[in-house]
Amino acid sequence: MKRIVSLLLFVLAFSVANAQTDSIVRFTLTAKKVNDSIYSLQAKASITKGWYLYGINSSVEGLQTIQFNFNNENISALKTVSFSSSPKKIMDKIFEKQVDVFTDSITATQSILIKKVIPSSVKVIVTASLAKGSEFHQSEDTVTVALEGGKESVGTIKLSSININQPLNTCGAKSSTDNKNFITVFLLGLLGGFIALLTPCVFPMIPVTVSFFTKRSSNRKQAIKNGSLYGFFIFLIYVLASLPFHILGNVQPEIFNNISTSPWLNIIFFIIFIIFSISFFGFFEITLPSNIATKADTKSGLGSIGGIFFMALTLAIVSFSCTGPILGSLLVGSLSGGAWQLTAGLAGFGLALALPFGLFAVFPNWLQSLPKSGGWLDTVKKFLAFVEVGLAFKFLSNADLVMHWGILKREIFFAVWIITSALLALYLFGIIRLPHDYKGMKIGGGRKAVGVIAVLFTLYLIPGVTQTKYANLQLLSGFPPPLSYSIYGKENVHGKGLEANVINDYDKALQLAKEQHKPLLIDFTGWACVNCRKMEENVWTQPEVYSYIKENFILVSLYVDDKAKLPVEQRIINYTTKDKSQKDIISVGDKWATFQSENFNQVTQPLYVILNNEQQLVNVPVGYTPDAKEYLQWLTCGKNTFDKK
Question: Of 88, 331, 368, 471, whose CB count within 10 A is highest?
Fold first, then answer.
């Protein structure tokens, strides 16, 4: 089980790594039109001297020659690959039999059939197997090739009429919402850090570490200095952990949304959280590989500032089995807001962990007021296990929403949480027992109080599985699936719960806005966007906001994390952005995320934009605005400006 966890963590850490250029073999591709639906692809392979490329060897199971793969489901290969010359026969050291190979340069030809629309270009993934003596290499090269007679992609991305710095009216000027978001994420990180302090991995370390500094230091002044420095380094380590995301953000700003809404990453987090919860229940222990902590620990000591830094690093490593799930929640929850929000969250988390070590080093007498380690720590750990189960299904829900699987509708999600919360209450009252619990175990007053809260929370969740007006649990808005993602036959999952005609295509919405002479209200949103759900369920449902949108605007909701593929004729290969980088626009989410960043210089959601019928920016776009009155004022300003124009 430990190996499985380590593997999952490894995959997560390297999920956004960039592929390296293959230097052993290079492919040059050309395409020749045969008829209206068939093309012939020629891939010229330049092979590094000393290496050989395997030809067609049906006698060697699993060994493949050059293969052509496509990012277009309307393309299929015809017949088998043919080569410009005959292969050589050699005795292969790896497979210990005679095989057909190519050396130097070779051209492979593959005929393809394209159904429906012929695109202007296609991205081809060419794979090949090569060897040099006993060294084996699997090559993969991605090449874009133009198709004669192909149609250019259709659909709107860049609007020449938009000048983000010169709206027709300045009402709705950017407020302190972003700063509030940073503060909120920081406070959530701080709360997470304080919770982590109460876990068995961290809490017992406080008196032990402070006593170590006190006894090993030559005087109290040095003890205070070393303890404070130790706390600072704990804080610094967690802040530095966000540094790679700033580098990634400079390379591709939309990567944060791609990471946080990736269905496979969310499924990985679901699995990890379930594994962590089982561990927290006491069925087994999870630790990082011991050699990592050992290497950090061997460099620790009081001899230098570096030694104190490695002591702090050792704490961060050995406490990971308890802090990991909290950090995982913080990572996915804050990434959609960008790298700085992640830094704010990790800074809060690191500060909460660092404070006790610094304060108790300055005031060592306070240690006597700390509660003694005991059974209550095990109770805290098992309480967190139930919380982990609930959070795990949040990650699964994210994947389900962006992929439209329909396996975790809103009512099913609440049913899982109701069962989890009810089981937590039964555990806290001692009705059910978990590992290390025993019959007749004393239940303290604090544990009973938390049990009562768990019962009340369970009762609060129950209306969530009904069709009543009480199903909108506003205190939890954003966490469960949207109200429209229901088992009660509501097929229009894009409907937002509004009777107004919500459109999900910009060009269609613009046409309708012109026909009805109404302003266009663009809602940049996401299936896994928490603040988007809060706006829809707490602000848009207010009668005055609801009626104003319905009567005065054409509403278009553009989902930036929708993984459904665009029709072939709307896909764009190697789209060049305004900052000269290139990307493929394959999915619905790719299109609308690029549309948002290219025209409005923002990649976070929600974002609300009002355009007139000439696609001019009416007023300053706004983001998350939980105050319904403030949001209505912004809508009114936009409508009034539109009418004057």
Answer: 331
Contact predicate 155/311, CB 8 Å: no
What are the tokens at 335?
């990434």
Closest CA to 332 of 284, 403, 277, 270: 270
Backbone angles phi, psi at 269, to 5 degrees: -65, -40
pLDDT, tens digit, 9 for 90 and up, residues 166-224: 888 888 665 545 555 678 788 888 888 888 777 766 777 777 666 666 666 667 777 77
Q: How many structural domains compose the chain?
A: 3
Grouping H, G, I as helix, E, B as strand and the rest as coil, residue 571 is: coil
pLDDT in tens, 432-471: 888 877 776 788 888 899 999 999 999 999 999 988 778 8
Give how far the C-alpha of residue 165 lies from the chain's centroid of Cα atoms, to the nearest Å.
Answer: 30
Residues 141 and 206 grouped into a single domain: no
Cα 214 versus chain centre, distance: 43
**Three-class secondary structure of residue 367 per DSSP:** helix
For residues 355 and 363, give the distance between their C-alpha atoms in angstroms, rounded to a whole number: 12
Sheet harboring 520-525: ordered strands across?
554-559, 520-525, 607-611
**Residue written as tokens 């290390």?**
436
Residues 237 and 345 in one domain: yes
CA distance 364 to 370: 11
Pull the structure tokens for residue 32.
Answer: 């020749």
User: 531: which 2 tokens?
Assistant: 């603040």
Count the neighbouring beta carbons within 10 Å of the beta carbon of residue 257. 25
Taking a C-beta distance cutoff of 8 angstroms, is the pair 419, 462 a contact? no
Supply angle C-alpha 416, 487, 259, rounded to 5: 65
SS3 of 99, please? strand
Reading the block at residue 543, the tokens are 């009668």
Q: Provide mean pLDDT across the span 65-93.
A: 89
Question: What CATH code is carried by the domain that includes residue 585?
Answer: 3.40.30.10
Cα separation, 408 vs 452, in Å, equals: 28
Cα–Cα distance, 583 to 565 (Å, whole number):
15
Q: Which whole number is the average pLDDT over 50-65?
A: 89
Find the mean pLDDT for residues 535-554. Answer: 91
Integer Cα distance of 483 and 106 in angstroms: 58
Q: Examine the domain organization and report whether 113 and 210 are in the same domain.
A: no
Find out whether 188 and 345 touch, Cβ atoms under 8 Å: yes
- The helix/strand/coil state of 127 is strand
pTM score: 0.73
Stretch (H or E) spanning 288: none
Question: Kindly report the CA angle at 543 between 605 and 628, in degrees rounded to 5?
Answer: 45
138 and 282 in a single domain? The answer is no
Report CA torsion sign: 610, 612, 616, 620. Answer: negative
By the 8 A CB rule, do 455 and 448 touch?
A: no
391, 384 contact by CB (below 8 A) = no
Structure tokens at 419: 């069962």
All residues at 6 or more sequence positions from 578 whose CB lies less than 8 Å from its CB, including other chains: 158, 598
SS3 assignment, position 414: helix
Can you tell me the distance from the alpha carbon of 457 to that of 445, in angstroms, rounded to the nearest whole number? Answer: 18
For residue 606, cis peptide bond before it (omega within 30 degrees of 0): yes
In which domain, by residue range, is 547 found? Answer: 506-644
Regarding whether 203 and 309 lie in a shared domain, the answer is yes
Is a pLDDT exceeding 80 seen at residue 614? Answer: yes
Handedness of CA 559, 562, 564, 570 (dihedral sign): positive
CA dihedral 586, 590, 591, 594 (to 10 degrees): -130
Which of 558, 523, 513, 515 minimizes the C-alpha distance to 635? 523
CA distance 24 to 19: 15
* Cα four-point dihedral sign 419, 420, 421, 422: positive
